[in-house]
């Protein structure tokens, strides 16, 4: 058992399936009281009933107050897990503004809004935990999906800013950055996901394992795929070489489309 989460009041957004459901189950198994959030009320209710938690359906950006009330007025851990993947169109194709707007709203601004609502209480009492489900795309990038890659960089940057700004005041932040995970989002990623992500894809439970190891060891960056650390170092050390390698992957993908 991880002492830091026993008895904690936890909210997991986008928890009707995939990584979110795995996190909700793990927190509940560790003795936390869990609010399961999802846009799909039926899926949220099903997971909540399974784990003995509470279901709060709706947009992750707007449920902080309702989730707090459901937990008796306090949130100890917020898992900003809800996310969307959009390809956004390629240069030369019609720009799909709505895909960019949705990606910014869900992948970045939902995190910002939740933190804005939670921080006053956390700072007053000197404790709180913010878990951001980012992606290896937030450290590296992903072919074929500019809105997803760009906004996941934004999500990582915001988590990093929260950590460096408030860690001395008791706020712990974790950024989870997996590569492929066997979820509906991977299935929807098409041929790019099949080429880049599926060969090394892991289960949602593996992501939960990595997070709880990170919580126990008070680690900000959570890498369920450890090799991402080496890719990240290579990208920083020699950007030209790294971009050349990624362009080769892009060209390989173009031949299979």
What's the average pLDDT? 94
Counted by DSSP, the helix tally is 10
- Number of distinct beta strands: 7
- Low-confidence region ranges: none
The share of residues in helices is 40-55%
Structural class: alpha/beta
- Strand neighbour order, sheet with most strands: 3-2-1-4-5-6-7
Distance between the termini: 46 Å
- H/E element string? EHEHEHEHEHEHHHEHH
Radius of gyration, in Å, reads 18 Å
Describe the protein's topology.
Elements: E1 9-12, H1 18-29, E2 33-38, H2 41-51, E3 54-57, H3 64-70, E4 77-80, H4 97-125, E5 128-133, H5 146-166, E6 171-176, H6 184-187, H7 190-196, H8 204-216, E7 221-222, H9 227-237, H10 239-256
Parallel strand pairs: 1-2, 1-4, 2-3, 4-5, 5-6, 6-7
Helix pairs in contact: 1-2, 1-8, 4-5, 9-10
Structural key phrases:
7 strands; alpha/beta; seven-stranded parallel beta sheet; 52% helix
Explain the overall architecture.
By secondary structure, this protein is an alpha/beta fold. The protein has 10 helices and 7 strands. The protein has helices at residues 18-29, 41-51, 64-70, 97-125, 146-166, 184-187, 190-196, 204-216, 227-237, 239-256; strands at residues 9-12, 33-38, 54-57, 77-80, 128-133, 171-176, 221-222. A 7-stranded parallel sheet has the order 3-2-1-4-5-6-7, sandwiched between helices. Helix 4 (97-125) links the parallel strand 4 (77-80) and strand 5. Helix 9 (227-237) packs across helix 10. The model has no long low-confidence stretch (mean pLDDT 94).
Gist?
This protein is an alpha/beta fold and 257 residues long. It has helices at residues 18-29, 41-51, 64-70, 97-125, 146-166, 184-187, 190-196, 204-216, 227-237, 239-256, and strands spanning 9-12, 33-38, 54-57, 77-80, 128-133, 171-176, 221-222.
